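The passage that follows is intended for readers who have already worked through the single-chain material. We present the inputs for a multi-component assembly, then the predicted structure in tokenized form, and finally a short commentary. You are encouraged to pause after the input and sketch how you expect the pieces to fit together before reading on.
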Amino acid sequence: MITNFQNKIKEEIEKFSAELSLPPAELYEPIRYMLSLGGKRIRPIFVMMACDLFSNKTEHAVHAALAVELFHNFTLVHDDIMDNAPLRRNKLTVYRKWNKSAAILSGDVMMVKAYQLIGRSKLSPDVLEAVLSVFNEMAVKVCEGQQWDLNYEQLHNISIPQYFKMIELKTAVLIAACMKMGALIGGAKEEDTENLYEFGKNTGIAFQLQDDLMDVYGEEEKFGKLKGGDIIANKKTFLLLKASAIATSNHYLKEELEQWMGASPHLTPALSKGEGEIQRERETKDAAEKVKAVMRIYDFVNVKKITEEEINSYHQKAVNALEKISAPEAKKQALIEFTSSLLKRET
Amino acid sequence: MITNFQNKIKEEIEKFSAELSLPPAELYEPIRYMLSLGGKRIRPIFVMMACDLFSNKTEHAVHAALAVELFHNFTLVHDDIMDNAPLRRNKLTVYRKWNKSAAILSGDVMMVKAYQLIGRSKLSPDVLEAVLSVFNEMAVKVCEGQQWDLNYEQLHNISIPQYFKMIELKTAVLIAACMKMGALIGGAKEEDTENLYEFGKNTGIAFQLQDDLMDVYGEEEKFGKLKGGDIIANKKTFLLLKASAIATSNHYLKEELEQWMGASPHLTPALSKGEGEIQRERETKDAAEKVKAVMRIYDFVNVKKITEEEINSYHQKAVNALEKISAPEAKKQALIEFTSSLLKRET
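Having made your guess, compare it with the prediction:
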């Protein structure tokens, strides 16, 4: 079933992408480029699976599924500008490959195209209105989440509840909205729709915790990112915040963690171009040393296990919400297996 | 009647703005700031007037009117980043007052909020769908127009038809969409709706030509911009393209115009900080000389009169489209008077 959905989504994305062979190329090529970078298409598959729980007319959910994938890619394009990110899925980010203006504008068009896709779905007026309303609320929250994330980068003390609120807005409400939109299109009862939203929200939080964990403890090749990238960038992840919280009672540990996380890998600026090579080597060495040192602290406070327990707890909350829903057991089981496989993907 | 609409729009914008006293401030304050900068609110007034041609239930058009104003402000916030514009209505642009990330994100939220506002309108399903579809198509075209504008900045030879296509997309389709959305909400027949779209499109083109003209021949205080700003920035306006086209047959004139328009006001870079003051004085002098020289050429080829005739011709096309519409003569007349007053606002 999931393979069917994956194939359907792939096919629809290719069709949609082909429609965008339009001038001006600077506006439309970045959209096709982003869609060609692939990814697991988790979000559109969730829309389809949610719809499938309540109806076998999943073809009605295809456009909404495409819309969330497009929206997700819009946020990536704009976020990459804000985060100065050079790479995305091992390829240049849009603003690096083209420029910032093209990235801003093509992102804007992706958002509009997402709305256009929803408008294309053959939905009854009530369902269309409800789907749009869920989509709008989600979109506002995702922007709020990104702004909190940007704000927190500048702050020294972020509490764990603040972190959870931020990832809920930035990451989890999109997964939740996917489930809710699918449920609405499938004709679910209100109670089931709300429980599926809860399923999505808790699953989304578990996904983000898993991402935080994999950055440090994942297998590099599978994860496709530099190991410890979050540590190098001083990113406030669950692991860091939790380790800091535990370290509060241990003066020596706290000081060491703060020293490392305050330290930039760019410790010594290159004095001339000729020194660039040596400089880069030194930075790589400093960065590796930093990752190793912080990981020693993480291991000491057992943050891997704590994070895994947290992930399991959110996953369990999600499963509990799903179990309350009136839908065929086999389909609910397929949804649980899909999320479980995603959560265990690199351990 | 127009005063009523103006007051209603003002009141609704204030109400909407008050709703946005929300955290995170970096996300919502820029929206409130943009809405507080004022402006003539031409676009929402057009939505109201278009609806009023066909129905006295203009309260149904208020949310759509607000939505287009918000969308317009979203484009300003993002365009100002792309254009490196320091000021907007004599105040700092959002990305200068806050930063680029806040400008990108708050712009994104403004777009979503525009959709949310349309969703709030109490419209029948058919009308809502039609209004959303007009809004979506318009939004895509406005982004295309901005991308063409950015592309044309880098090109030496832009034809007058290319220029007209660009301003149609970037500026005129928004006015056209305002009229069409208002007409749809007012319950207009399809033919009337299409004619009103034509009215809006041609009016929008006339507005942009008028803007181009006022940059050079407007009264500085009234226009609120630096006189000849487009000339200083080498912007490809109708006046420049037309003057270039006429100058093609006059070798001397063509060379002089090209020399001036190729010349940057930053002719001699300041060698040290101490020279900044002298440098700025020199730049101001160079810029003023450039404006004077280009205006001499404009006067020589009579481009003011040609532009005025072009404006009149588009205004007349707009009026002709309006005349075909079945609506009370007095209301059509009010619409003509409103656009005429806007077109003559500074001459």
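Commentary: Residues 125-153 of chain B form the longest helix (29 residues). Chain B touches chain A through 35 residues (CB under 8 Å). How closely did your sketch match?
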